[in-house]
C-alpha cells in the first residue's frame, strides 16, 4: 500500500514538478530546494 502510494506520487512529480538536474544546488532558491528535497524523499521511498 505504502509503496503504491509513492509510485503514484512519483508519476505526478515527473509530470508536474520541474526537473532541477542541470542546476547548481548552491544557487537554488529556497522553494527549489524544497521541491528537490521532496522529489528525493519520494524517490527513496519508492526504491525501498
Approximately how much beta-strand content do the residues carry?
under 5%
Global shape: elongated
User: What count of helical segments does DSSP give?
Assistant: 2
Mean pLDDT: 88
Provide the low-confidence segments as ranges.
none
Q: Helix/strand/pairing class, anyone?
A: mainly alpha
Assembly category? single chain
Organism: Pedobacter jamesrossensis
Protein name: SsrA-binding protein
Topology:
Blueprint: H1 2-16, H2 30-47
Helix pairs in contact: 1-2
Organism: Pedobacter jamesrossensis
Protein name: SsrA-binding protein
Could you characterize the architecture of this molecule?
By secondary structure, the chain is mainly α. The protein has one domain. The protein has two helices and no strands. Helix 1 runs antiparallel to helix 2. It is elongated.
Amino acid at each position: 500500500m505504502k509503496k503504491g502510494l509513492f509510485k503514484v506520487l512519483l508519476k505526478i512529480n515527473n509530470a508536474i514538478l520541474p526537473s532541477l538536474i542541470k542546476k547548481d544546488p548552491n544557487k537554488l532558491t529556497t522553494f527549489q530546494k524544497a521541491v528537490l528535497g521532496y522529489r528525493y524523499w519520494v524517490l527513496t521511498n519508492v526504491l525501498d
